[in-house]
Amino acid sequence: MMPTNRPPSTPETPTRPQPPSPTNTRPLRLIAALGQWGDVQPLSNLFAPGNGNGIQMVTWCQDGARLVDDAIVFDADVVILDPSLPSFALEDIQRLYHSEARPIITLGAIPPHGEWGSTLYRAGIKGHIELPLNDDNARRLTALIHSGLQDALRERSSASYIPQIAPQLAQVIATQGWQRAVIAVWSAKGGVGKTTVAENLAMLLGVISNRKTILLDANMAGGNAHIHLRLSPQRNIAGLARLYEGQKRLDPKDVLGYLTPFRNNLQVLVGIPRQFMAGELCFQGEAGRDFTRALIETLHSMSDFVVMDLGQDTNSAVHLQALRQADQILVVVNSEKASLLDTHEVLDTLWEHVQMDRSRFRLVLNRFHPEHGLQRKEIVEVMQLPEVGVIPEMSEKVTASLNSGVPIVLNGGGEVAESLVRVGTTLYPPLGQIWGQRGKFKPKGKGLRQRLFGGTRE
């Protein structure tokens, strides 16, 4: 069963798109990745050679495994995709969009059965129509194609664009040392920004670095990742815990059914949407510890990185077991004296009485400002932890990113994003090089820009 409901209807698009410039070298090329000839035929008629829409259908692809190769061979600009096509992989939408020469955009042809809409938009489609296709809704594609390609070219030409890894960079990355890891983001105090840190680190690893990453919202005080990232809370950690309670085991197939794809190689296990759910027996005592142990082991076997957002209460069986299993624990603090002292006290308990390895703990100083009255050196001395990141006080921008549903590292950069990248490079060193590729895309040749915008200047 595919996740979540279809997105709200998109704004009305112009019914009379601008025709391509007379200087165009060729019409835009369209691939129909559809299962039924009855859906293909309206496109074949509308976008036949010599039509006046500036778009030409070049092939019909019935096998999802061939889609990317066909798009490259036929020099495509746009794909109309039925996601129920055999062997189709969601990540191919991003592979097409990040093709080196130019963006190849995907428009969804959403089947009448299933809940594909939200899944496809998270994967990166630029618009959609609904199946079955007929002459009327096929005509809508003309405007969607031209506007979608314009948006894609603007995005890929912007300073915030981060391309997929070029082959040369991939070779460099392969020679650098990095390890798969389970990372806990934790604090002994609430409201210090650990959820924001966890979500953005997951974006840096899974979306920007394109490593297989799972964001685990295991905050038993009530998870907020689904709110920040605009995900459905229907499939959440509580459902998985109940499943484990019944069968006393987890395997990747079980877990996969509860993960929600976000973008690229990032998936999210949504936390408990209501705080009272933390009181269920499946989260308590030995049952909670056993479930958490099995969950983390399974997630780790499925991914390069597991990023866990944990609540502050170390009396919670889930929180404490997650801390025990983490390879690295990022302790998030603010420059507020009482908070620092309280966190230090809890850390002493974890080290001395729970006997956790102190070397796994790292310090992330969030919302720091020199005028808060404490120096970074003083904070490090109090916490007795190595500092791996200092994130400046820019709460208005962070709040805006949370409300927009777009994490700040995906929203164009800035000081906060740069600081989070520095934290991320301690987990995955090649991230710094990948981040440095932002804005490096330049359209090759004059044809694409001319076809989209007209004129002769590049």
Brief summary:
The protein contains 18 helices and 13 strands.
CATH architecture of the largest domain: 3-Layer(aba) Sandwich
- Name the overall outline: globular
Number of helices: 18
Can you identify the CATH superfamily of the largest domain?
A: P-loop containing nucleotide triphosphate hydrolases
Tell me the fraction of residues in β-strands, as a range: 15-25%
Number of domains: 2
Structural class call reads alpha/beta
End-to-end CA span: 46 Å
CATH topology of the largest domain: Rossmann fold
**Share of helical residues:** 25-40%
Strand order of the largest sheet: 8-9-7-10-6-11-12-13
- What low-confidence regions span 5 or more consecutive residues with pLDDT below 50? 1-24
Tally of extended strands?
A: 13
Q: What is the rounded Rg?
A: 24 Å
Q: Summarize the main sheet.
A: 8 strands, mixed
What is the highest CATH level, the class of the largest domain? Alpha Beta
What is the residue-mean pLDDT, rounded to a whole number?
85
List the helices and strands and how they pair.
Blueprint: E1 28-33, H1 37-46, E2 55-60, H2 67-73, E3 78-81, H3 92-97, E4 105-110, H4 117-123, E5 128-130, H5 135-157, H6 167-175, E6 181-186, H7 194-208, E7 213-218, H8 225-228, H9 237-247, H10 252-256, E8 260-261, E9 266-269, H11 285-302, E10 305-310, H12 317-325, E11 328-333, H13 337-352, E12 361-368, H14 376-383, E13 387-392, H15 395-404, H16 415-425, H17 431-435, H18 447-453
Parallel strand pairs: 1-2, 1-3, 3-4, 4-5, 6-10, 6-11, 7-9, 7-10, 11-12, 12-13
Antiparallel strand pairs: 8-9
